[in-house]
Amino acid sequence: MEKKLLLGDEAVALGALHAGLSGVYAYPGTPSTEITEYIQASPLARERGIHSRWCTNEKTAMEAALGMSYMGKRALVCMKHVGLNVCADPFVNSAMTGVNGGVVVLVADDPSMHSSQDEQDSRFYGRFAMIPTLEPSSQQEAYDMMDFAFDYSERQCLPVLMRFTTRMAHSRAVVEVKAEPRPENPLNHNAVAANWVLLPANARRRNDTVTAQQPQLEEDAAQSPFNSLSLPGKAPLGVIASGIAYNYVCESGLQVPLLKVSQYPLPRRLVRQMLESCERVMVVEEGQPFIEEQVRGVSDNPNILGRLTGQLPRTGELTPDCVRTALRQATANQPTQADTPTFAPSPIVAPRPPQLCQGCGHRDVYTALNEVLREFDTPRVFGDIGCYTLGFLPPYRAIHSCVDMGASITMAKGAADAGQWPAVAIIGDSTFTHSGMTGLLDAINENADITVIISDNLTTAMTGGQDSAGTNKFEAICRGLGVSEEHLHVVVPLPKNMPEITRIIRQEINYHGVSVIIPRRECIQTFKRHAKEKKLKG
Amino acid sequence: MKCDIILCGVGGQGILSIATIIGEAAMNENLYIKQAEVHGMSQRGGDVQSNLRISSQPIASDLIPRGGADVIISMEPMEALRYLPYLSPDGWVITSSAPFVNIPNYPDIEQVKAELAQLPHVVMLDIEQMAKDHQVPRSANVILLGAAQHALGIDYDKLEAAVRRVFARKGDAVVEANVKALALGREG
């Protein structure tokens, strides 16, 4: 045993490596990025030749992992919660195919939306895909669970979903790790084509099999070492707590009957035991009321308390404070005041929102775009996911939408279809290869009247500067998709080039078809990092 | 022992390095540690904080409850005020006195300092200036850590040893600059 101070993300990564992982497949996304980065930097992974290069998006990642599993080896897929939407098709169907080598899909949810556009709870995906789901409550458990998860995946012939949240992903704790990593699985050809070819006849059979497995999966959860029920006897209040919420219940110091849930399907047998012994039950869970809704059913049982009944906030991250207050109120069975801290928040403190870095090329792109668009009455700029989404904020106030990866181009096209002009799309290089290329093909096939700006900073910047799948390939990709040579431009976004950039933007807006402008200059953060590395090397 | 610390500042000011050094020292003492960090979008010039908890007993929550922080270590004076509701009644605030102004509505710095001065236990140091004056321009954060040492419940020698271990791979010059910075902070 060795002790290491690890982020939740790193605990997952090391747990997977020690469980005999052969490949990690991922697209960067806060708060999941550090899992893959840890494996990329791991000497063990390098020694073993573990696959760890970034994928173009979460769908390609999930499918490549299935391919590795098909050949008998263990694969980990990592993403943020909205990434699971992108790979929903292979994820849901991976329950139908089943697995050969173990597959763990790690999804990091982001309640309170620290770096995301919604706070969807991935446990719902596990339930509706009929895939067993794990939810660690500590970094140690995250590490330990990986070994279990790969074994369980192979035993059940199903992928395993592991869900955690920002606070676990980005929090460090001391983790005891194994001295000896397990060997990788050897390549085998045991995968049965009749399971993996999801023709209706095969899929129906697999659907019956997986459906029939569900009661056993639930009983496994009831007996899981990660779930526990402490029920000393009859009590006025019991608590069901899952994942990291369990810690906040422990932090409160209140001694109550407690069901800890870290493995799903929800072990209803244990829930019923608690309901029989406790007059009221409070459900404390991070994210949406996933357990709470199942426990309540449609009966609206007034003795089930939680996010749906107002004791805990309906949305947003839990805190040790809101959990403590809710538990105190419920155990006292009367409203009690929340604790007032000694020091009040200072009224003079101003918000300090994130902003584009000084010297960032996106700044010059927005300066140029704003200067040109001032000449039009009602221009619309469809934005996308990346640092450049900050262009919505002052001083630029330059974009009018940001929905999901790639939506800039397709929304601009739809707007142009509706008669909007000018319709401008602005998308980053990594987001373009993630989900923008197919939309551009749609636009080209109809010669939609849109101007696409691919703001290329040669990296996936917002998540910390990971490699971008399309670097050095953008002109070729655009030409290949059918962008005409005279409407494809590359510029260098610097203040001194403002006249040229504005001239090209103006000219292409006035061209009534698809044009692509690629402002290209390295991200200032990676530029500084590269300069430093160069200096160190001498 | 138990020490709950809020580290705060503006993205890029180096609060995570302070956390790494304290974590290294605590780990060496076989203490329990939990350290919640902020990654991602907020790092772009926004306010950032890290909850660092060290204890001889197991720690449940990754987050510090309100009114529970023993120390706020802040690389920026207004950012120190942002987390006051987390400060315990006897808690210490150790902060840089130099404002980092990257927003148009930054409050009057004299008012910020006046609010800080009203707190029962506060240390305000112009760490940027001290770092420049003593030729350790990149170690302002370690000066601040030195100033916080007495409030952390970790022996100075152990903190210094942690500084040496954390910076070892960057070479002797960097190690010595940071050891010097730590001493400067202790002297105040």
Layout of helices and strands, plus pairs?
The complex is a heterodimer of chains A (538) and B (188).
Chain A (H helix, E strand, L loop, with lengths): L1 E6 H11 L2 E6 L6 H9 L1 H6 L9 H13 L3 E7 H6 L1 H10 L5 E7 L13 H6 L4 E2 L4 H18 L3 E6 H4 L1 E7 L15 H4 L3 H23 L5 E3 L4 E8 L2 H7 L6 E4 L1 E2 L3 H10 E7 L5 H7 L7 E2 L14 H13 L28 H13 L6 E3 L24 H11 L5 E6 H17 L5 E5 L18 H8 L6 E4 L6 H12 L5 E5 L4 H14 L1
Parallel strand pairs in A: 2-3, 3-4, 4-6, 5-6, 9-10, 9-12, 12-13, 14-15, 15-16, 16-18, 17-18
Antiparallel strand pairs in A: 1-7, 5-11, 8-10
Helix pairs in contact in A: 1-2, 1-8, 4-6, 12-15, 16-20, 17-18, 18-19
Chain B lengths: L1 E9 L4 H14 L3 E5 L10 E9 L13 E6 L2 H6 L4 E10 L12 H9 L4 E4 L1 H7 L6 H13 L3 H12 L4 H16 L1
Parallel strand pairs in B: 1-4, 4-5, 5-6
Antiparallel strand pairs in B: 1-3, 2-3
Features:
heterodimer, A: 538 residues, alpha/beta, Rossmann fold, 3 domains, six-stranded mixed sheet, five-stranded mixed sheet, 21 helices, globular, B: 188 residues, Pyruvate-ferredoxin Oxidoreductase, domain 3, 7 helices, 6 strands
Describe the 3D structure:
- The complex is a heterodimer of chains A (538) and B (188).
- Chain A has a 6-stranded mixed sheet with strand order 2-3-4-6-5-11, with helices on both faces. In chain A, strands 8-10-9-12-13 form a 5-stranded mixed sheet, with helices on both faces.
- Chain A starts with a strand and ends with a helix.
- The longest helix of chain A has 23 residues, at 200-222.
- Chain A is built from 21 helices and 18 strands.
- By secondary structure, chain A is α/β, with parallel strands linked by helices.
- Chain A has helices at residues 8-18, 33-41, 43-48, 58-70, 81-86, 88-97, 123-128, 139-156, 166-169, 193-196, 200-222, 245-251, 268-277, 290-296, 320-332, 361-373, 407-417, 429-445, 474-481, 498-509, 524-537, and strands spanning 2-7, 21-26, 74-80, 103-109, 133-134, 160-165, 171-177, 228-230, 235-242, 258-261, 263-264, 278-284, 304-305, 380-382, 423-428, 451-455, 488-491, 515-519.
- Chain A is 41% helix and 17% strand.
- Chain A has 3 domains: 2-222, 3-Layer(aba) Sandwich (Rossmann fold); 228-332, Rossmann fold; 361-526, 3-Layer(aba) Sandwich (Rossmann fold).
- With 188 residues, chain B is of the alpha/beta class.
- Chain B has a single domain (2-187), classed as Pyruvate-ferredoxin Oxidoreductase, domain 3 (3-Layer(aba) Sandwich), CATH 3.40.920.10.
- Chain B is 41% helix and 23% strand.
- Chain B has helices at 15-28, 77-82, 109-117, 127-133, 140-152, 156-167, 172-187, and strands at residues 2-10, 32-36, 47-55, 69-74, 87-96, 122-125.
- A 6-stranded mixed sheet of chain B has the order 2-3-1-4-5-6, sandwiched between helices.
- In chain B, helix 4 (127-133) crosses helix 5.
- The longest helix of chain B is centred in the C-terminal third of the chain and has 16 residues, at 172-187.
- Chain B is globular.
- The chains are: A alpha/beta (538), B alpha/beta (188).
- Chains A and B meet through strand 1, strand 7, helix 12 and helix 15 of A and helix 1, strand 2, helix 2, strand 5 and helix 3 of B.
- Strand 7 (171-177) of chain A pairs antiparallel with strand 2 (32-36) of chain B, so a sheet runs across the interface.
